[in-house]
Every structure is written in C-alpha cells, then in structure tokens.
Fold this protein.
Amino acid sequence: MTTNSIATMSDTELIGATARAAGDERRITTELLALLAELDARRLYLGEGCSSLFTYCTKVLHFSEHAAYHRIETARAARFFPVILEMIADGSITTTTVGLLRPHLTAENRRRLLGEACHKTRREVEQQVAALAPKPHVALLVRRLPESRLSGKARDVKQDGNVALAGAMLDVARPEATPQEASGFDATPLEAPVQGASALRVSKRETPSPDPRSTIAPLATDRYLLRITLSAEGHANLRRAQSLIRRTVPNGDPAAVVERALALFVAHLERQKAALTSRPITSTQKRIRGASSRHIPASVRREVWSRDGGRCAFVGPHGRCTETGRLEFHHVVPFARCGDATTNNIALRCRAHNAHEGEACFGIRGRAGA
C-alpha cells in the first residue's frame, strides 16, 4: 500500500483499511510481547551487549523509553498470566492498562481485574487501582518554587532591585515517578513462582520530575491528589480566601477553598453555557426577538442540556460521541434553511461534530454554527 493508493480510496475503503491495520498492529504487538517474554526468560540481551532488557529495547530495538517500559511490563506479566496476550490481541486491554494493574495481579484475581479493565481509559483504570489500594490522605502544603523551576512571566518580578519569586505551588503530595521519568530497570527476569503481587514488581530507580507539571490522580475512590502551580496573583487570592473562610474552616484548609471555589465557578459556567438557574425567567418576562434571529432562548438551552446530559449527542456507527467539552448548540435543520430554535431542532454537539455536520450539509469546511 502506497501513499498514492491510500489517497485514491473511498471513505468506506479507508475506514475498513484502517480497522484492518489496527487489528494487524494488535496481532504483531502480541507476537512481539511473547518474543520479549521468552528473550527475557533466556536473558539473551546479555549476549547482545546489553545489561538489561530495557537497554536492549531502547538501544537495539530503538523503542522510546515509554514504549519499552510498557512492553517489558506487559511481557513479564504475560509470562505468568497468558490471558493478557489474548486480551491485547482482541483489543480488550492495552499495555498501559497492564502496566497499571500489574502490581496488583495475582493468580486468584487476574481474570476479575483484567475483565473489569476491558476497554477502559487510563483514567478509569487509575480509578480501579485506587479502589484496590487506597492511598492515605496527604498533608497539604503550599510552598514557593525555586526560581529555576519557574518560566516565562512567572519567573521573577523586580522589586527594589531584588528578584522576587512570582510563583507558588499548591502541592498536596509528592507523586511517585511515572514510567516516563524512570531512568532504568533491573535486568533480572521473573523466574520465581508467583507469590502474590510482589512477584510481579520491577525495581526501578526514580528521579524527580524535571518540571512542576499539573497532576490530578486518584488516591482512593472518593479522594484525589491535586498538584498545580499558581501565579503570584493566584497565590495571593488563595491566601485571601483562606483568611476569609477561617470563620467556618478555622485551619483555612486549601482543599476546602478549592472545592468551594470550584462549586461556585461551575455554577457560573452552567448559567452562562446552558442557562441553568434556580429562578428561570417566565415567558411573560422574555424579550421578543424576530423570527430571523439566531438567538436560542434560555428555556430551550436548559431543556436541551438536560435532555442530552451535557454531552455531544452525535451518534456514529460505533455509538454516541463521549465528548463533554467544547459543546455547542446545533441546529438539526440549519438556521440558514429556516431551522427554528426549538427543543426538537436544537441538540448538543462538540465543536468537531458541529463543524462536521455543517460541512456535510453545506459542502464547505468551517460552518460550525450551522
């Protein structure tokens, strides 16, 4: 197959060829994992001049560190639980899923845990892991970042000839290094019999994160770790909010401040986007607009938002779109073709599907407001 032959495919042929290629990739990945597992068991990487399987994968096979990590984790787990290869071959799970579940897999729970993880996103699997092994509540901490950790306008502010830091980190924990941050892995293959989850762990040397990236991670089913970097203005607002809330929250808990601020902000955004309010304007109070107006009444926006569940309502061959962000109110019969702004003619669409339907209707790109 060449680039030219792909360009001449019909839409149906292209979709079919893509699905077949994805299936072929899963099949080849499954074969690769089985080969890596056997190569690891025989320690053949040593004869190739590599001290570990990780080094062999990155230096000889030229995988990225991230890809090497997940393939090694999955290959080693598959040696004990062959069902993993079957599930990867049919697309039920991914190597990322196996990497997250591997420390918790045992001979007794493997089918249940892997079955619960079928077709789940990384975030959903992280929730599953948090339910399996809840982490303790973390101590709250607000600290100033070193100058070298800040960038751009947030780096420094000149005051009286001195450099004052203009950023602070709202830090509720120090997360463990991610696979991408791990610098290496041991070369010891897993040859011992399965003895619970400990037999499946790979030791790794962890290094601190190179930059203060935002982090949201589940600690348990009902608790999350939030780690963000604030500007000087944001930090000042946080401190001010802590002072004002101390009457009801004596210790000025930043988590309480953030939760209450988010509740107010979400309510504000819902009023703006979906006209959600506890006191809707009655029909006698509404301003009459001309029939040529594109205005969608607040009552219609509220009904449509509730009916569509705050989610894109576009339905394709494989089901409904799951997007809940960048939502727009879409005219089923386009406004340009005399479509009314009624509940039956308005539906939620994500920006991409709104534009897609406008393009399909008018034959040009960029008609997101159709």
Remarks:
- The chain has twelve helices and ten strands.
- Residues 11-138+173-221 form one domain.
- The longest helix spans residues 11-42.
